Amino acid sequence: MSFLSKIFRSSSFSPSAPSLRESYDQRGQTYRTSCPSNYSGQQQQQSYYGQGTSGGGGYSYGYSGFPPGTSPDIIRSFEMVDRDRSGFIDENELQQALSSGYQRFQIRTVRLLMFLFRNPHDPQRIGPKEFAALWTCLGQWRGIYERYDKDKSGKIDLFELRDALYSIGLATPSSVLQVLISKYDDGSGRKIELDFDSFVECGVILKGLTEKFKEKDERYTGTVSFNYDEFMSMAIPFLVSYD
Fold first, then answer.
1. Mean pLDDT of the region 193-200
2. Where is this chain compositionally biased, Low complexity type (predicted)?
């Protein structure tokens, strides 16, 4: 049985607290993407993710397609890996961009992000607009990760993960969390903890699947009807990207 199949068996995806409407849409926020907060399409001025990239000047910032006000750090990161100057980057180049300056991202996380921020005209690559949106989204996840890493260990455990997800309106059942975090059990018997890369995986999967469910649950009943095609269209992209 696949990992995500276990999640589906563990939960009906009907958040339990404090209410369905608040769980889907806590504190007045609406979640239309797999980012912690709704992405408006406008890139803010500062560079949010990690520590930016190393290196000095020499960059032309000549790419078109970045939203107005995009940080030079974000543009530099894109330029550094787009060596053929095509204006697009593939999954390997994205992995390199995200891994520079902070930590290495696993390719499965990169592929999941590629799917979520895919270019509608070229699903195998992303351009400046998608890259800027992805970078901002990771910055939002990073802020939550640091906030709930209470002991500042650089990793978060099951309870910190639960609180972090709850803070963005995902009242995730304990059975789902147990299955989710078991993915990272190395068999050593040590307490399972997640680094930022793994936290992003967990967050975007739960957020993305909840969003798909929410699209059908317009009255916040906690129960929806899917036909087979709809269910497979919802689940398969996450299975392919993640398992």
1. 92
2. 1-21, 37-51
pLDDT at 142: 92
In the chain, where the domains are located: 3-242
Q: Supply φ then ψ for residue 113, to 5 degrees.
A: -65, -35
Q: Give the predicted TM-score (pTM) of the model.
A: 0.73
What does the alpha-carbon distance between residue 99 and residue 123 come to, in Å, rounded to a whole number? Answer: 21
> Which residues, listed in sequence order, are joined to residue 126 by a DSSP beta bridge?
89
Handedness of CA 8, 37, 203, 88 (dihedral sign): positive
Hey, what long-range contacts does 216-223 have (CB within 8 A, 24 or more apart)? 217/20, 217/24, 220/19, 220/20, 220/21, 220/24, 221/20, 222/12, 222/14, 222/15, 222/20, 223/12, 223/14
| Architecture of the structural domain at 3-242 | Orthogonal Bundle (1.10)
Whether the predicted pLDDT of 234 surpasses 70: yes
Note the pLDDT tens digit of each residue in 78-102: 999 998 889 999 999 999 999 875 6
Q: Say how many C-beta atoms besides its own lie within 10 A of residue 193's C-beta.
A: 18
DSSP E strands in the chain: the ranges are: none
> pLDDT confidence of 26, banded at 50, 70, 90?
very low
Phi and psi angles of residue 61, each rounded to the nearest 5 degrees, phi first: 50, 40
